[in-house]
Write a structure and sequence with these properties.
This protein has 2 helices and 39 strands. The protein has 454 residues and is mainly β. The relative contact order is 0.07.
């Protein structure tokens, strides 16, 4: 009998709960918000705190805080309201470029499970913050940028010619945030910490400028100059490592390089320049050349040109010869071009069909192994060969050396045709200079390579 009674009571409770649930679903409800925060004003970049007590006679669903600039919703926070009570959070007031002081709309929306909503809105005056200072953050130091007027800030101090860093703001109120400005897609962007590279014509005291409203900044003076002509950046992605200038040079003239702060520490190629202190004198014959300032390697690379293209070997023995392969590189051995002709080394044209490339054993050429070829153009095509008879534009090359020989083919002397190699049981003497001089007579007959140890 007791068991039957318990079963009846259980069924009655289930029916009662279902009935209550049905009643909740039928009720529209009345979401009520008691907002405990004041919203008199804000600054762009703030995180605005709020505390709201919510209640309803049916279960609540969500509390949403929203900010609108005009008709555009620019920020939103969604809170799950599992029960009546008090809820706190913050909503971000977005910081946009060129946004003037104005009035935003702050909106709170409370919704219950039956989609009944209560909405409260505020007109929120918003101003662009004016900071007492900014901070320029570099890899090893922080600099204070002082406020001058409007939204302008400046840093004046002794700086290197190029300096990279990002800019950050201080927190000026309890609800403020630390904001950052960095470099993205060739421009200064809010929220980034990628380094902005400022640059001046020379190192020393100069001024860095930045405006927190329009993100304008200065200086960006990349002025690397050769003989009074400004170099231009090579189109190699976002890298700032290499700059070039094509110009006509004369044998024996001084080559003046300006704007490179640490140029006295760069490696100078003795095949192209005689160096006396800061003075560089051009050694090859008169002609058009491309000079590349390679900041990654701190190296002034020179390549022979013919008009707007790279020079190549001509029928009368003039033009250019290039090295590609392994075991020799400039400015160091690790920078050997490998088998990429785009990185090939140009021999210095000395006139009358003579071309020179010199290397220091253990520094720019291998002591125990070399494996490179001489090609006639800065691309794959014709080259010098070891076989006495060559065709297809390739030319036989005789090598005069007691250390180095030219391959005639794996079946002939064990080295690929045209590749230079060290003779068996021979090595180069570390620290010694080895001069490779190719003579190309007019008509391209009787080409000879002489290797001299100095």
């Amino acid at each position: 009998m007791k068991l039957l009674t318990y079963k009846i009571l259980f069924l009655f409770s289930v029916i009662l709960l279902a009935s209550c649930s049905d009643d909740d679903e039928k009720k529209a409800g009345n979401p009520v918000m008691d907002i405990h925060s004041e919203f008199n004003s804000a600054m762009y970049g703030d995180s605005l705190p709020f505390t709201i007590a919510v209640s309803d006679d049916v279960p609540l669903s969500t509390l949403k805080a929203r900010i609108y600039y005009g008709s555009e919703k620019v920020s939103e926070v969604v809170i799950r309201t599992k029960a009546n009570g008090s809820y706190s959070d913050k909503i971000y007031v977005p910081f946009y470029k060129d946004m003037a002081d104005g009035k935003a709309t702050l909106e709170f929306v409370l919704q219950n499970i039956n989609f009944t909503m209560n909405t409260v809105t505020y007109d929120l005056p918003v101003t662009r913050p004016v900071y007492p200072y900014l901070t320029f953050v570099t890899a090893d130091k922080e600099y204070k940028m002082l406020h001058t007027n409007g939204h302008n800030y400046e840093l004046t101090t002794v700086l290197p010619q190029k300096i990279g860093g990002y800019i950050k703001t201080p927190k000026v109120t309890d609800q403020g945030n630390e904001l950052t400005f960095g470099w993205e897609s060739e421009a200064i962007e809010f929220g980034s910490t990628n380094f902005i590279t400022f640059s001046n014509l020379t190192a020393g005291e100069y001024t860095i400028l930045f405006n927190t409203k329009d993100y304008s900044a200065a200086p960006f003076i990349i002025a690397y100059v050769v003989n009074g002509v400004e170099m231009e950046k090579l189109a190699e992605g976002d890298s700032e490592e290499r700059y070039k200038r094509d110009l006509t040079l004369k044998q024996g003239e001084e080559v003046r390089v300006e704007g490179i702060d640490d140029f006295s520490e760069w490696w100078i190629d003795p095949d192209f320049f005689a160096q006396e202190g800061d003075k560089l004198t051009f050694k090859p014959i008169d002609g058009k050349y491309r000079i590349i300032a390679d900041f990654g390697r701190r190296y002034l690379k020179v390549e022979a040109m013919s008009g707007t293209t790279f020079a190549s070997l001509q029928e009368d023995g003039s033009g250019a010869i290039w090295i590609v392969g392994e075991g020799a590189g400039k400015p160091t051995l690790k920078h050997a071009p490998s088998w990429n002709p785009d990185m090939s080394i140009c021999l210095a044209p000395m006139g009358n069909g003579k071309y020179v490339a010199s290397f220091v054993a253990g520094e720019t050429i291998g002591v125990n192994s070399i494996n490179f070829v001489f090609i006639h153009q800065k691309a794959w095509g014709s080259s010098f060969k070891g076989a006495e008879t060559a065709s297809g534009g390739n030319l036989p090359l005789t090598v005069v050396s007691d250390l180095i020989f030219i391959g005639k083919g794996q079946n002939a002397n064990g080295v690929d045709d045209g590749n230079l190699a060290l003779m068996a049981d021979k090595t180069l003497t570390e620290g010694k200079t080895y001069v490779f001089e190719i003579e190309v007579p007019a008509g391209l007959s009787g080409c000879k390579l002489t290797v001299t140890e100095k």
